[in-house]
């Protein structure tokens, strides 16, 4: 059945792709964001450029909607989220709390909250060969400072909304999402885009800076899998927190090698141990999503990084030719 759907954070990476997908499925979509999408126009039928930290803006955005995908957040890679805990925590708390209050009185059918692997306890992520993180290890909690704290608090609020107000909610724990149209410079970029940018800007035989010793591990999810997973989870009747990511764990050094291979360049790594590194190892345990959806993300990094790398290469060459001369920092 066709729905009226609000996507908050529709000017951002995942929200923009999600809007395109929902519109192509025939839904009527409203996007809301403090900014317009950076790289191409939104496909949304209606786009509200508003600050969702303000209560009234949330109420207007939610009015008459059937479903909400709540993606708006002050967000970035580890360099960004570890850089200003107070501002990020306050901004995301205001956005989410006001959105929940708006939803409470709206008659909404379903509310999906974009949570994060950053909710998982830091003491379980101290080794590169980390045990994949299953949903039930999030408590007792020791989340990522600030950003992760707001995410785990909001997961609980979603649980209470469902229990006390009978509003069906979803809490989806994304594991590092990448793809074309994702931020690749400016300070908010995550490792796949940052490494791709550095490799694009590096001459064959040159050197790039890699944060940490490169032995830290992550799993990375391609944007198409992320959007498909979100739509499938919204359709399924499952309210508790659930992982959405791949369980293909690689080192950051592997990530650099893959990007260099795609570029056809020989690249030397200059490891900088003073730069932000986050947890030592992180991987998704996909047992629950396999059980709930009979599906899981399948696009491997070697496949997904090709269009991502090519898009960043094209962006740098065409949109910002001057950046060719910027040092690969
Ligand atoms: P993004 O930064 O590209 O998108 C977030 C959007 O929220 C931005 O367009 C931003 O302008 C908007 N926003 C921020 N403050 C706002 C405000 N006050 N009012 C209105 N809009 C505001 O990030 P993304 O990668 O698309 O992430 C989407 C969601 O998924 C976020 O909630 C993020 O925390 C979560 N998440 C993403 C990842 C990932 O790897 N991309 C991982 C874990 C969780
Ligand atoms: N960003 C970035 N830039 N990271 C780099 C770089 C670089 O140039 N070089 C190496 N890295 C390393 C980081 O030190 C870190 O150890 C690893 O790559 C991954 O970094 P990010 O992609 O920035 O973040 P993250 O995986 O620690 O956390 C991200 O994913 C979470 C969900 O899984 C963040 O985006 C969080 O906000 C998100 O919730």
From TrEMBL:
Annotated NAD-dependent epimerase/dehydratase domain residues: 5-236
UniProt keyword RNA-binding present: no
SUPFAM superfamilies in the record: NAD(P)-binding Rossmann-fold domains
Entry EC number(s): 1.1.1.364
GO molecular function: GDP-mannose 3,5-epimerase activity; NAD binding; oxidoreductase activity
Keywords from the UniProt entry: NAD, Oxidoreductase, Plasmid
Keyword Oxidoreductase: yes
Enzyme class at the top of the EC tree: oxidoreductase
Protein name (record): dTDP-4-oxo-6-deoxy-D-allose reductase
Gene transcribed to yield this protein: chmD
């Amino acid at each position: 059945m066709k729905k009226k759907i609000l996507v908050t954070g529709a000017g951002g990476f995942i929200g923009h792709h999600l809007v395109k997908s929902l519109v192509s499925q025939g839904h009527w979509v409203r996007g809301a964001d403090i900014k317009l999408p950076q790289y191409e126009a939104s496909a949304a039928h209606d786009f509200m450029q508003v600050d969702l930290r303000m209560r009234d803006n949330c109420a207007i955005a939610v009015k008459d909607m059937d479903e909400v995908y709540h993606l708006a957040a002050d967000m970035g890679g580890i360099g960004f989220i570890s850089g200003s805990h107070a501002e990020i925590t306050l901004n995301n708390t205001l956005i989410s709390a006001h959105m929940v209050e708006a939803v409470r009185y709206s008659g909404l059918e379903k509310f999906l909250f974009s949570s994060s692997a950053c909710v998982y306890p830091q003491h379980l992520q101290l080794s590169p060969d980390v045990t994949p993180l299953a949903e039930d290890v999030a408590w007792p909690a020791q989340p990522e400072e600030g950003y992760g704290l707001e995410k785990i608090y909001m997961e609980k609020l979603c649980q209470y909304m469902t229990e006390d107000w009978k509003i069906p909610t979803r809490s989806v724990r994304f594991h590092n999402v990448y793809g074309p149209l994702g931020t690749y410079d400016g300070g908010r970029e995550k490792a796949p885009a940052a490494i791709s940018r550095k490799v694009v800007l590096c001459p064959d035989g040159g050197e790039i800076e890699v944060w940490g010793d490169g032995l830290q591990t992550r799993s990375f999810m391609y944007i198409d899998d992320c959007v498909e997973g979100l739509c499938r989870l919204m359709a399924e009747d499952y309210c508790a927190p659930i992982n959405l990511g791949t369980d293909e764990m690689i080192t950051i050094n592997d990530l650099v090698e893959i990007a260099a291979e795609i570029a056809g360049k020989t690249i030397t790594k200059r490891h900088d141990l003073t730069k932000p590194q986050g947890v030592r190892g992180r991987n998704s345990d996909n047992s629950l999503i396999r059980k709930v959806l009979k599906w899981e993300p399948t696009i491997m990094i070697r496949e997904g990084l090709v269009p991502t790398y090519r898009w960043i290469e094209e962006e740098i060459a065409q949109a910002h030719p001057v950046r060719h001369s910027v040092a690969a920092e």
